Structure formats: structure tokens, C-alpha cells
Amino acid sequence: MVRAAGIFGGIVSAQQILFLVLYVVIFLLSAWALVDCLVRPARAFPAAGKRTKTFWLLVTAIAAAVAFLALPVGGGTSFFGFLAFIGVVASIVYLVDVRPAVAPHSRRRRGGGGRPSRGGW
């Protein structure tokens, strides 16, 4: 009987580690979306035909906050666990749809003083 308890204890430990890794990945993905949204210029969002920067900042900030609160610290689960999955979907939508559309509108211009670059050495 003691041996069976040891096996189940190992399974529970493995599940806790798996959930911790899953929620850390969810938090990192949500944080990446938030930071990326922060560095994009506000004018790039309407230029790309997307909702405003304020909207996406709000969505990604809420997703990152919920993902942070859902981290299973101490091996327990959180009330925010399910909400973290909803938040990561919003972050993925930003990273897969909005980010590529906004990226061409937010690049810095290269070259000195507006002169065209000749390239090469």
C-alpha cells in the first residue's frame, strides 16, 4: 500500500510540474504580446486596418494580468486558470493577426537625412 501511494505521489508531482510549465508559457506568451503592443506606434494600428492601440493594450494587459494570477504557485490551482486560456487566445490573435499587419507600418526609416541608401560598403 505504501508503494502505491509513492507512485500516485509521483504522478501528482508530474502533473503539478506540467501545469506550472503550461501556465508559465501562457504568461510569457501574454507578456510578449503586451510588450510588442507597447512598442508599436499608435498610428500603425488604424493604418493597418486594425482596432486602436488602446484597445489592444487593454486586451493584452488583461490577458497578461490574468495569466500572472493563474500561475499555480505552491502547487495549487487558481480560480483564474480557465480565464488564462481565454486570455492566451486573445494574445495569440494579437500575435498572429494584428502584429504582422501592424509591423510594416511601424518600421523605422533607415538612412541618414532622408537620402536613399546605396547599399554595399
Strand content: under 5%
Please give the domain count: 1
Using only C-alpha atoms, the radius of gyration works out to 21 Å
The shape is elongated
How would you characterize the largest beta sheet?
A: none
| Unreliable stretches | 111-117
The rounded distance between the terminal residues' Cα atoms is: 75 Å
**Helix/strand/pairing category:** mainly alpha
Query: What portion of residues is helical?
Result: 55-70%
Elements, N to C (H/E):
HHHH
Compact summary:
With 121 residues, this protein is mainly α. It contains four helices and no strands.
Topology:
Elements: H1 2-39, H2 44-47, H3 53-69, H4 81-102
Helix pairs in contact: 1-3, 1-4, 3-4
Describe the structure.
- The protein is built from four helices and no strands.
- The chain has helices at residues 2-39, 44-47, 53-69, 81-102.
- The longest helix is centred in the first third of the chain and has 38 residues, at 2-39.
- It starts with a helix and ends in a 19-residue tail after the last helix.
- It is an all-alpha fold.
- The protein is 67% helix and 0% strand.
- The protein has one domain (2-105).
Keywords:
mainly alpha, 121 residues, 4 helices, elongated
